[in-house]
């Protein structure tokens, strides 16, 4: 199989981002074993789900004893952003065969999407398929290896040490990197406030409520502000 030069360009494009992906994936692996999952189960979830933010939240809900329907609903809400990512990437990849589109859709991540779209906009003569595949595959491989390492390390650490710090630290890192305009700041403030105020609700449903209200606040502000003011 001939590998296009744009594949390697995609790999090079995401290499600097791995400095954040690798520790995040390791935390995901540590968190999985800390809630009682086996190494095999941790690897299975990491490969099948491949969505770090929702995985960490589900692990937190598992530790709180939440019902499975709450876990599924929460993961679904968090992963709704991939629908918007897919719609944005569609014009660049829609002519590919169904099998290739399915593979590329499975490997979709925040990092692969952001890197690819930034490159596509500034480079007209590029193989969109190969660049995105190089970026997405690099993120996927780095994530899986790091998650396994995290799970192995987590299994060696006494359970009494606890890993509650993993959740807030990882999400704080994600949040600060995403606060780039008024709607996202509003979403973070509303979601964070509701999460604190509703933390006493049963089965950790306050987290689900916070997600819904945070998204609603960001969407409302974005629809009200003129486009040129959103980024100010």
Q: How would you explain this protein's 3D organization?
A:
With 232 residues, the protein is mainly alpha-helical. The chain folds into 2 domains: 5-163, no CATH class; 179-232, no CATH class. The protein contains 13 helices and no strands. It has helices at 5-14, 18-34, 39-49, 52-63, 68-78, 81-93, 98-106, 110-122, 128-156, 166-178, 182-197, 205-224, 227-230. Helix 1 crosses helix 9 (128-156) and helix 4 runs antiparallel to helix 5. The longest helix has 29 residues, at 128-156. It is globular. The relative contact order is 0.16. Mean pLDDT is 82; it is low at 228-232.
Number of DSSP strand runs = 0
Q: Main β-sheet, in a few words?
A: none
Structural class: mainly alpha
Please tell me what the overall shape is: globular
Count of domains: 2
Q: Roughly how many Å apart are the termini? A: 47 Å
What is the oligomer described by this structure? single chain
Question: What's the gyration radius in Å?
Answer: 19 Å
User: What is the H/E string?
Assistant: HHHHHHHHHHHHH
Summary keywords:
mainly alpha, 2 domains, 13 helices
How is the topology of this model organized?
Blueprint lengths: L4 H10 L3 H17 L4 H11 L2 H12 L4 H11 L2 H13 L4 H9 L3 H13 L5 H29 L9 H13 L3 H16 L7 H20 L2 H4 L2
Brief synopsis:
The chain is an all-alpha fold.
């Amino acid at each position: 199989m001939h590998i296009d030069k744009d594949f390697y360009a995609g790999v090079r494009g995401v290499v600097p981002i791995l400095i954040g992906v690798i520790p995040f994936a390791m935390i995901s692996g540590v968190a999985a074993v800390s809630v009682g999952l086996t190494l095999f189960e941790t690897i299975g979830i990491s490969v099948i789900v491949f969505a770090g933010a929702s995985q960490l939240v589900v692990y937190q809900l598992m530790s709180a004893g939440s019902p499975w329907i709450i876990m599924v609903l929460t993961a679904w809400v968090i992963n709704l952003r991939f629908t918007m990512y897919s719609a944005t990437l569609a014009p660049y990849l829609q002519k590919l065969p169904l099998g290739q589109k399915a593979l590329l859709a499975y490997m979709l991540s925040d990092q692969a999407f952001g890197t690819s779209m930034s490159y596509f906009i500034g480079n007209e003569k590029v193989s969109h398929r190969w660049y995105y595949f190089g970026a997405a595959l690099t993120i996927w491989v780095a994530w899986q290896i790091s998650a396994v390492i995290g799970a192995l390390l987590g299994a060696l650490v006494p359970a009494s040490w606890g890993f509650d710090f993993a959740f807030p630290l990882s999400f704080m890192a994600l949040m600060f990197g995403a606060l780039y305009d008024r709607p996202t700041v509003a979403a973070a403030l509303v979601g964070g406030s509701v999460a604190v105020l509703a933390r006493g609700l049963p089965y950790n449903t306050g987290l689900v409520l916070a997600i819904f209200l945070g998204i609603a606040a960001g969407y409302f502000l974005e629809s009200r502000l003129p486009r040129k003011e959103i980024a100010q």
